[in-house]
Fold this sequence. Notes:
Layout: H1 5-17, H2 21-31, H3 39-58, H4 62-72, H5 79-83, H6 88-111
Helix pairs in contact: 1-2, 2-3, 3-4
Amino acid sequence: VPVDARRADEWYEKAAAAGSADAWYALGLRRLPKADDDLSSRQRARADACPYFAAAAERGCTHALMHLDTIMHSKHTPRHLVFRTLDLDAIRAAHDRANNADLDSDDDDDEDD
């Protein structure tokens, strides 16, 4: 079956509009640079992916948080391209929720002992 990237994006966008964290994450992944892109294109692609990862993170996707962290701390990503597109307070809140969820699950594990 041939892959239709444009149609896939349309479906991901519909799911994202309905609130799917997985769809936001997939849209971010689809915007990441290709291996043969030049440096400028890779930088722009990483920055373009950030709002999608941020939206996924705000909806509870911890994988998106990891991608954001990697992009934001990469020496190959110009900060002015990334930070202009992000709501850092929302990302911090998503990070805190993920950390609290991890702590809660650790507490649940302790109760089994």
